[in-house]
């Protein structure tokens, strides 16, 4: 005989969605309520100190000043676990509402559900107690909670990204999405329409590393934080308030951007391995060398500035920052080492343009026969894997991964992938 819920149980469960949201910053809520699975049934709280640069973007997700948050950053920096998984936990515990998360493909949506969300939900008590006890309410792509709020995991498809309304929509790995979703427009436009019913409380999040071609090779910046003319996430970044990350120099105190323009030491070597070992950041003001052991302390002191703002050596911010309903952030690689920064630069400057030019020519001359109906964007948006780093110490590498997993800057699935 089927078990029926009592009126008392129903009132208790739905009260969560009627209750006012918990007034706490998103990053604080995630560090309080989300635990990161460590394997063998162990877990630890998410540690904001390991990825402090995502705290400000995370807190913007609950602000009514913005309709969207755009975060551009390299892989392996903890942005996805903080912004995507953390926001999911926040929406379950602190502000229950329907949420849609779009992964790059059906396979990635399944992997995200099984390898990350399942484990995170099981080891986070505040989330686990809010899951619906009914078996049919929880499957790979759909989760229903006791309060009645709903979490949907999907992929770029007009059937998934149209009709239904969601208070929160998250798009991850955006630059690997098709530029046009089934002839209905870009993914960001479709996602933003899903939140309009909720007016100023609706929010769209987009995160990705940049992966689209620059349209004008002769382009020059008109403002200090402007991104090159392109499609994808950098075009969304340009529509926002264009925030860039700044570090205080440990030698002279002046703030600077930890970006590719301030990388040096690698240009004299033709060997990519030797070049990556020799690469280091240099303060543009005093030419002081920024060594890898300084990275964590500098990340703790990092400051996001909007386009039009400046900061002096005392940390005083001045200038009228660019205003927009989109809070946009671009981090070029302070949380990665010199090898990964150079690898991303080489892929963007050499490997990706070469592959796309070769593919276009091979199709034109008939060397590659394409089946009917294939999405050309999916062919051009290949995944590029750099060579292994032969100089690393395996013991130190394993210990580093343990530290990142403990703090939520990496996951078990990312380690073993």
Sheet of most strands: 10 strands, mixed
End-to-end separation? 45 Å
Proper CATH architecture of the domain at 7-208? 3-Layer(aba) Sandwich
Number of strands: 17
CATH topology type of the domain at 7-208 = Rossmann fold
Determine the strand fraction and express it as a percent band.
Answer: 15-25%
Category from helices, strands and their pairing: alpha/beta
Give the radius of gyration. 22 Å
Q: Quick one: overall form?
A: globular
Instruction: Enumerate the spans where pLDDT stays under 50 for 5 or more consecutive residues.
Output: 413-417
Mean pLDDT: 84
Number of helical stretches of at least 4 residues: 14
- Please give the CATH class of the domain at 7-208: Alpha Beta
Features:
417 residues; alpha/beta; Rossmann fold; ten-stranded mixed sheet; 14 helices; 34% helix; disordered C terminus
Could you give a short description of this structure?
The chain is of the alpha/beta class. Among the domains are: about 5-210, P-loop containing nucleotide triphosphate hydrolases (Rossmann fold, 3-Layer(aba) Sandwich), CATH 3.40.50.300; about 245-320, no CATH class.
């Amino acid at each position: 005989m089927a078990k029926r819920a009592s009126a008392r149980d129903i009132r208790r469960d739905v009260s969560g969605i009627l209750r006012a949201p918990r007034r706490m910053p998103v990053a604080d809520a995630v560090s309080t309520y989300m635990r990161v699975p460590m394997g063998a049934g162990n877990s630890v709280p998410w540690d904001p100190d390991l990825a402090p640069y995502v705290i400000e973007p995370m807190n913007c997700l609950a602000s009514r000043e913005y309709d969207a948050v755009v975060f551009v950053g390299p892989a392996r920096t903890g942005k996805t676990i903080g912004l995507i998984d953390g926001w999911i936990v926040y929406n379950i515990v602190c502000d229950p509402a329907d949420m849609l998360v779009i992964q790059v493909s059906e396979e990635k949506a399944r992997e995200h559900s099984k390898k990350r969300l399942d484990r995170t939900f099981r080891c986070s008590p505040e989330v686990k107690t809010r899951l619906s006890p009914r078996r049919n309410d929880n499957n790979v792509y759909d989760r229903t909670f006791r309060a009645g709020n709903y979490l949907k995991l999907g992929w770029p498809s007009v059937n998934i990204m149209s009709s239904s309304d969601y208070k929160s929509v998250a798009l991850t790995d955006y630059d690997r999405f098709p530029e046009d979703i089934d002839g209905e427009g870009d993914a960001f436009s479709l996602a933003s329409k899903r939140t309009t019913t909720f007016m100023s409380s609706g929010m769209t999040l987009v995160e990705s590393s940049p992966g689209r071609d620059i349209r004008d090779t002769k382009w020059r910046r008109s403002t200090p934080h402007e991104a090159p003319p392109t499609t994808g996430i950098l075009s969304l970044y340009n529509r926002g308030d264009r925030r860039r990350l700044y570090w205080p120099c440990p030698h002279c105190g002046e703030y600077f951007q930890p970006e590719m323009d301030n990388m040096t030491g690698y240009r004299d070597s033709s060997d990519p391995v030797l070049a990556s070992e020799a690469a280091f950041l240099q303060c543009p003001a005093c030419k002081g060398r920024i060594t890898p052991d300084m990275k964590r302390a500098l990340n703790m002191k990092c400051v996001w500035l909007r386009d039009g703002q400046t900061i002096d050596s005392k940390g005083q911010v001045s200038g009228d920052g660019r205003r927009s309903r989109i809070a946009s952030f671009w981090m070029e690689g302070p949380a990665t080492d010199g090898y990964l920064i150079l690898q991303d630069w080489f892929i963007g400057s050499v490997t990706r343009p070469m592959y796309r030019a070769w593919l276009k020519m091979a199709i034109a001359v008939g060397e590659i026969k394409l089946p009917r109906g294939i999405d050309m964007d999916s062919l051009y948006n290949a995944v590029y894997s750099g060579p292994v780093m032969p100089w690393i110490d395996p013991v130190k590498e394993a210990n580093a991964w343990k530290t990142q997993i403990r703090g939520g800057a990496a996951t078990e699935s990312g380690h073993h992938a």
